[in-house]
Amino acid sequence: MDDTSRDRAFQVYVQRLRRAVEARDTRALRKLTDTDEVVVGRERDDKGWQKLVAKWRPDDRDDRRLWTALSEMLAAGFVREHPMLYLSPYQVWRFPRNLERAAHLVIARDKAILRAAPSLDSASVATLSFDIVRRMGDPVKGTGLGEWVPVRTLDGRGGFVMSRDLVSPVAPRAQFGFQAGRWLLIALEDD
């Protein structure tokens, strides 16, 4: 799901954000952020550019969490909550409240194959498209590129899915608001 095309000004903002993330340009990111009010945690005073820098460490070349999180959000797309607010990733924001976030994952693409064993040669159990699955254990090495995650669908089918096809609903999340005539990053949090 990506509602970016619903607002031309937001499209331009996303292009600028993408360039800043690709270049790991902290100064460019600062210009794209509500530096006074950006929320970075649950506490009342967890806001502002200095708190973002302290938490996410954008200039630390060994700590890539910020740039990885933003890159993954750009890849996932943005959901328009209302005309002045976009959220990303939608898999986190639209996750059902009645399911335990830490125990579940979201299939992040169309037609991901649930296999009987952690192998590209293994039989297909099902084809999943943006489904929610329950994590049944830690990722394992199998045949093919990457790791495989043992999962069970909500209707009870078990098997393995490539880790690259999954998103955790406890991933970092962001909000982008239209303020004073421009789009800005207004929240960047993680659990």
Describe the protein in words.
It is a single chain. This protein is an alpha+beta fold and 191 residues long. It has 2 domains: 4-95 and 171-189, Nuclear Transport Factor 2, Chain: A (Roll), CATH 3.10.450; 101-167, SH3 Domains (SH3 type barrels, Roll), CATH 2.30.30.40. It has 5 helices and 12 strands. The chain has helices spanning 8-23, 26-31, 49-56, 65-76, 90-93; strands spanning 79-82, 85-88, 104-107, 112-115, 124-128, 132-135, 140-141, 147-153, 158-162, 166-167, 173-179, 182-189. The strands form 3 sheets. Strands 3, 6, 7, 8, 9 and 10 form a 6-stranded antiparallel sheet that branches. Strands 1-2-11-12 form a 4-stranded antiparallel sheet. Strands 4-5 form a two-stranded antiparallel sheet. The longest helix is centred in the first third of the chain and has 16 residues, at 8-23. The radius of gyration is 18 Å and the shape is elongated. It starts with 7 loop residues before the first helix and ends with a strand. The mean pLDDT is 93.
